[in-house]
Amino acid sequence: MTQTDSRVTHLPTGSYYTPSGEYDDLYRRSMEDPEGFWAEQAESLDWFKPWEKVLDWQAPYARWFVGGKLNLSYQCLDRHVQTEVKNKVAFYWEGELGETQVLTYNEMYRLTNNYAAALKRLGVKRGDKVALYLPMIPALPVFMLACARLGAIFTVVFSAFSGQALADRVEDVGAKVIITSSGMHRRGKILPLKENAVEAAVKCPCVEKIVVVKHTGHHTEMDPDRDVWLDDILAGVDEYVAPEAMDANDPLFVLYTSGSTGKPKGILHGTAGYALWIAKTLQWAFNPDQKSVFWCTADIGWITGHSYVVFAPLELGLTSVMYEGAPDFPAIDRWWQLIAKYGVTIFYTSPTAIRMFMRHGEEWPAKYDLSSLKSLGSVGEPINPEAWLWYYRNIGHERISISDTWWQTETGGFMISPTPGIQPHPLKPGSATKPMPGVDVAVLDPDGKELPNGQTGFIVIRKPWPGMLLDIYQNQELYQQTYWSRFPGYYLPGDFCMKDQDNFLWLLGRADEVIKVAGHRISTAELESSIVGHSAVAEAAACSRPDEVKGEAIILFVTLRKGTDPSPEIKAELTRHLRATIGALATPEEIFFVNLLPKTRSGKIMRRLLKAVATGATVGDTSTLDDGASIDEARAAFEELK
Ligand code: ATP
Ligand code: MG
Where in this chain does the record put each Acetyl-coenzyme A synthetase N-terminal domain (predicted)? Predict the structure, then answer.
């Protein structure tokens, strides 16, 4: 891991460094007395009935705050409307076409009650399942809150999924109602969501009703027995719906993972532990205050949107920005324009977005006043140091910290991240730094022995934490096998990690994507970081192919920055660059130039597809692939060479 470590010397770490402060104390307490620690933290929630037991841990099932009763919509709304937060802005919403809406806490409260009343009239009650297939419009968080209020279990399906992908999820959860909109705007086009919802309803006998939010103006056929307009069921009533007293461990939602490594898994999250975990981790990682304007760019269809667009900011009474459209519509500066317009103070996005902006050049953000920003964040994939530095310089202007947050759908909220809300760590581009309080991390070798600092292995979490998933929905066997069978008693995220000499953690991609070359293990993240460090490269994906001599041979798929065209010279140059930055073992067998890398719809590179192309295997589940053309392109590049 010399390459990763050597980058550290470039770093602007000094100004953030406060040695041995509060973080160490808080972390130590969370490890020495987890139950005492979490009992204290849980005072920040409003309980209808206090818990009897902080933790019931019967591995691999953790149940937090047993006996306690609460409601997440109450945490997010009711308790704020009793204070001065009532008239504060909860969301500044902007549509792709430029239309805007400003929603205060009081308006969110009123809408949530009315939507809950409407759902109740449709027969939705506690324990029922509801599928939400909506674009990034205010109705989506409102329906999530309304479901939470009624105790109905919701599953949000990302709006860019097809009717079939929706049907798979609707059927798996057994949804009684699908809530959708007439359509959505994307890069100037209208996508027909309602038609996809009908396709799913026809395929899934569990579906009784489709509720349609009027969003785009186009015509949609309504089945009088099955389909209702939201406006009609709201029917002018203003109603209070008492929040259900939910059990601390009652299920809140099912959310399907991104499908980067295989078929998406239906992750089941609970109420109290999840609510506490996301609020605390947002506070710790981003240090918001009551004047913050928070913008998490994730779609609500992913866990990042659930936890950090909807629930955690509302629990903390923050103001958020929510944007419906594409980052490059009408032009690549749309996001920077929005930051300047709303005075965003905390901006949280993904490496894939940052690399896209890098590809287009720093002149775009340079046109805007980004001085309102106080904190930046990244999530979704390892952020390579080059992208980190670009973000730090061109968006943060070298004056604010970046919280690289490592976590998963399964973890509910951040697990490893800088914690300026407790005490700022020094930063190292590409490292997610330290675990959150309560997160007991170790790096193990394949036999389960803890590795010394500097060596790469499997990251495991040795203690349950409040945001931990309850289960995989209706699949306990898969739950136990995926996360708990390899190292019994420890949660296995499936990522590779290295703890450096300063105890900083480097997340290095999927453990099953590690490449073994001539007896050496090299992570895809390390190879990609190195090659993206070359000024001609915008993005890269590494994978491998079996090789008789070396065990595995490295294959790279590369997209170039504007201004460089593929050529044998650039290929040779990139090979030299890899050898110089990592070593001879990083010599790729082949470099393919493509325009697009295959990604999940949440923006993660799907290396397993590239590997399938490079080895001539079948590609497997592609239901979450963003753009089918990208895999065809890789295949064509590969065929051409043969
Ligand atoms: P599936 O589980 O279906 O393969 P997925 O793991 O991509 O899909 P998510 O839960 O959305 O679905 O993603 C979690 C994964 O994303 C992590 O396991 C990790 O590999 C990666 N990840 C997220 N944030 C970071 C980060 N800050 N640094 C490195 N990797 C990250
Ligand atoms: Mg995963």
Answer: 23-76
